[in-house]
Amino acid sequence: MNAGPDAIEELQAQEARLVLPRFTYDDAWTLGTILVGLARERRAPVAIDVRRGAQQLFHCALPGSSADNDAWIDRKRRVVERYGVSSFLVGARFRAKGTTFEASSRLDPDRFAAHGGSFPLAVAGAGVIGSVTVSGLPQAEDHALVVLGLERLLSSYGDAAG
């Protein structure tokens, strides 16, 4: 995905569409297991993390992933926590301005990474309450996997999702 206005609009539309009616501990487990299933279908060497606030509700490391993926999860998640939008969108916004997150954010790149794969967990009426992050694939694929997982979670709510 390029960093042009169309990409930014698409990323913003995803976030507007992927607002959850609720997010419980059971929902965290469901989302995590959906993502594990999708990753296993693809034989993707990823780590998956689901958090509500500071609490980690789900974590799984699949074959081929490493501790580096956990470090990437933390760096991408911090971007979501700081900006309230997906790590991919933050990076795209900087690139659209002709710069990079690393060059212009004034944040420590050892602690923050605006690479795709971390997505805000937003609940209707409450706003962003957590994050879901995947690490191990190229950034656009990490992002796409998270989006697909959230779409499947939303569809599991049935009519409750509106």
UniProtKB/TrEMBL annotation:
Q: Which InterPro entries match?
A: PduO/GlcC-like, PduO/GlcC-like_sf, YBR137W-like
Please name the Gene3D superfamilies in this protein's record: Haem-degrading domain (3.30.450.150)
The record's SUPFAM superfamilies line, in alphabetical order, gives: GlcG-like
Q: Which NCBIfam families match?
A: PRK02487.1-5
The UniProt entry's sequence similarity note says: Belongs to the UPF0303 family.
Q: Tell me what this protein is called.
A: UPF0303 protein ACFFTP_14705
Organism of origin is Streptomyces roseoviridis
